[in-house]
Amino acid sequence: MKKVIFTLFSFCLLYVNTNAQYCGNTGSPSGSSQCSPNGLLTKPGLSPVSDSLPPVINGTSAPTVIQFKNFDTITFAGQTLKIQNLRIDSLGNLPAGLCWATNKTNNTWSNQEDGCIKVNGTTCSAPGQYRLKIVVTAFVGAVAPGIPISTDAGAANLYYYVRVNNAGDSETAVDTAGQAANSNIFVSYGTPTNCGTGINDVNSNINSLTVVPNPFNNKAIVSFYADNSGVMTERLTNMIGSEVLRRSVEVRTGVNTSTIEKNNLPVGVYFYSLSDGKNVVTKRVVISE
Predict the structure, then answer these.
(1) Of 20, 35, 199, 247, which one has the fewest beta carbons inside 10 Å?
(2) Banded model confidence at residue 168, pLDDT cuts 50, 70, 90
(3) How many CB atoms within 10 Å of residue 150?
(4) Among 63, 64, 42, which Cα is nearest to 52's?
(5) Which pLDDT score is estimated for 102?
(6) Could you give the C-alpha distances from 187 to 100, 132, 172, 176, 183, in angstroms and in order?
């Protein structure tokens, strides 16, 4: 029973990071607008399992929703206790640039209740697998609201992983070697990251992309060299992956420039990307006061 019950905490590990942030810190808190439970889970836990979760692609915003079903009981100190509610307190080890939220404003689910977790944003992190961490509080006992018990899923030797790929990388199976020793926090795929100092360049037609000034408080000039002429797409997304700018630009062979204007955008971190339809170059930019 203990193994089954603590699987709850293992599943709750999805998309969490000690350096990641709760989406509410960027103005998009938990609530029904984030995601909707599909009600299809017949057993407690999260779906899908980590090997079935598609890798996050560097420089690409692809919001992911994980379905959740709360457990009925938990085994603690040799006793089986009924769960009144379970709350996600913190999520750790998400790749930089991603944040999490749930369908409940208090990130809390009642006994056997269906829920969901949404992970959003655009990352620029080293390719590999990230062993995720979650801290939850289970309110247990026969009488509501229950006695709070806080735990880290890693303490139960249960783990969950999220993978990061560059565009075009083949998918690598999750490697669980070393997790029992609590040492397998990050495993590199050995492929150079396309992000590096902030630019994601995948054998691209686009070279030497710069944004000056960066940070900027009014406007910035984007400069880049194109090997071929054509039409490209500019995008600007915020930290939770919402697109705030999209436009097509005519590009000539050689040096090109474009302008990003602050307009009414709030101060913060954004990701500027330029795509020729096959490859994408992404640059982290900051709008200041």
Answers:
(1) 247
(2) confident
(3) 10
(4) 64
(5) 94
(6) 22, 12, 11, 10, 10
Asked, as a colleague might, if the bond just before 215 is cis with ω within 30 of 0, I would say: yes
230 sits in which H/E element? strand 230-238
Contacts with 31 (C-beta within 8 Å, 6 or more apart), sequence order: 101, 103, 104, 105
Q: Is 92 or 261 the better-scoring residue by pLDDT?
A: 261
What are the residue ranges of CATH 2.60.40.3080 in the chain? 206-287
Write down the pTM of the prediction: 0.60
CATH number of 206-287: 2.60.40.3080
Element (H, E) at 11: helix 2-11
Cβ within 8 Å of residue 70, ≥6 positions away: 8, 44, 83, 86, 109, 110, 111, 112, 113, 114, 115
Q: How confident is the model at residue 94 (pLDDT cuts 50, 70, 90)?
A: confident
If we measure between CA atoms, which residue out of 6, 12, 2 comes closest to residue 133?
12
Check pLDDT > 90 for residue 230.
Answer: no
CA 59, CA 244: separation in Å to the nearest integer?
15
Joined together, the tokens standing for residue 193 give 């990251």
Cβ proximity of 238 and 270 under 8 Å: yes
What contacts 24+ positions apart, CB below 8 Å, involve 112-115? 112/44, 112/69, 112/70, 112/71, 112/72, 113/69, 113/70, 114/37, 114/38, 114/39, 114/41, 114/67, 114/68, 114/69, 114/70, 115/37, 115/67, 115/68, 115/69, 115/70
